[in-house]
Design goal:
Strand order of the largest sheet: 1-8-7-6-5-4-3-2
InterPro entries: Aldolase_TIM, Ribul_P_3_epim, Ribul_P_3_epim-like, RibuloseP-bd_barrel
Enzyme class: isomerase
Order of helices and strands: EHEHEHEHEEHEHEHH
Catalytic activity: D-ribulose 5-phosphate = D-xylulose 5-phosphate
CATH architecture: Alpha-Beta Barrel
Largest sheet: 8 strands, parallel
Bound molecules: D-xylitol-5-phosphate, zinc ion
Structural class: alpha/beta
Shape: globular
Cofactor: Co(2+); Zn(2+); a divalent metal cation; Mn(2+)
Pathway: Carbohydrate degradation
Radius of gyration: 16 Å
Number of helices: 8
């Protein structure tokens, strides 16, 4: 099993952003998880294009952008130009999800779909083969540092079943409240990528914490 760890930059120290980016570069982490919030889709505003530009200037690993914004189609090209490798939109924010997925891919990015905790995985039955990554929200999106919602394990298993039944190669990412308490169970249920924000950057030694998560899940 090869789990991927994606530290969420939302929990980094923005006054020492370059330091924290270099920390992830040098760590065993696989991806950078970048949370973009617009204050409309979620009740919080994180950061936008200039900050992402500063991040991609230094980051040497895959850039996984999680858009928590309404009408994400407006910015697909912008995020491609800024260096996003994976662009994830919310199911709940897309009226024409299939069209949005095609637009993301036509810009050369992998296409992700995020589901809020209340959104049933069965809604992806008709698009699963077009989705590179499903991001299951294990907290209500908008803030780092929240508690993991236990119902997520069930959703991972259900989603895995849909992926296998359709012969899709979609990866499952878990986002929110990931710690050493749930990482192993999530991987056993079928998760491929774990996003971790406050658990990593709130630790005394983030580098060791990332390595610890990988060890725990292999
Ligand atoms: C929540 C964000 C998450 C968040 C995870 O809206 O999408 O990526 O940064 O942070 P933790 O790991 O602290 O829950
Ligand atoms: Zn996220």
């Amino acid at each position: 099993m090869s789990i991927k760890i994606a530290p969420s930059i939302l929990a980094a120290d923005f006054a020492n952003l370059q330091r924290d980016i270099e920390l992830v570069n040098k760590s065993e982490a696989h991806w950078f998880h970048i949370d973009i919030m617009d204050g409309v889709f979620v009740p919080n505003i994180s950061f936008g294009m200039p900050v992402l530009q500063a991040i991609t200037k230094h980051a040497t690993k895959t850039i996984d952008v999680h858009l928590m914004i309404v009408d994400p189609d407006r910015y697909i090209k912008t995020f491609a130009d800024l260096g996003a490798n994976i662009l994830t939109v919310h199911y709940e924010a897309c009226t024409h999800l299939h069209r949005t997925l095609q637009a993301i891919k036509s810009e050369g990015m992998q296409a992700g779909v995020a589901l809020n905790p209340h959104t049933n995985v069965s809604l992806l039955e008709d698009t699963i083969k077009d989705i590179d990554l499903v991001c299951l929200m294990s907290v209500n999106p908008g803030f780092g540092g929240q508690s993991f919602i236990e119902n997520t394990y069930k959703k991972v298993s259900q989603l895995k079943e849909i992926i296998n039944r359709n012969g899709a190669s979609t990866k499952i990412e878990i986002d929110g409240g990931v710690t050493d308490k749930n990482a192993k169970l999530l991987v056993e249920a079928g998760a491929d990528i774990l996003v971790a924000g406050s658990y990593v950057f709130g630790a005394q030694n983030p580098t060791e914490t990332i390595a610890g998560l990988i060890k725990l899940t292999n």
